[in-house]
Design a protein that fits this description.
This protein is an alpha+beta fold. 12% of the residues lie in helices and 23% in strands.
Length: 104
């Protein structure tokens, strides 16, 4: 079981659980306070935008061009922005911390 600490848009912290191979987006959209993930993981809408805690950024593969092109459109993008649809959990992500980004 992989534990993830998620700060929602209201500043509340939630402890959610996933498994190796799970899409982070799938876990987040299961919750009322999570991400809408409107496109269902096609990397075309950006409604699964999250801020990965800087200590965890290097545990994921680098951003690919499609993801970066979409992130470049948002005014809320920061150096630790990622689209959760592009992030697959590994056992090493146990304890991951992230914050849901505001919608643009």
């Amino acid at each position: 079981m992989i534990h993830i600490l998620v700060t929602d848009l209201d500043g509340q912290v939630h402890d959610i659980h996933g498994h190796e191979g799970d899409s982070l987006m799938e876990l987040l959209r299961e919750h009322e306070w999570g991400t809408p993930a409107v496109c269902g993981g096609l990397c075309s809408c950006g409604t699964c935008h999250v801020y990965i805690d800087v200590d965890w950024l290097d545990t994921f593969p680098p951003t690919e061009s499609d993801e970066q092109d979409l992130l470049d459109v948002f005014s809320s993008t920061t150096g630790n922005s990622r689209l959760s649809c592009q992030l697959v959990l590994q056992a090493s992500h146990d304890g991951l911390k992230l914050t849901i980004a505001p919608e643009d």
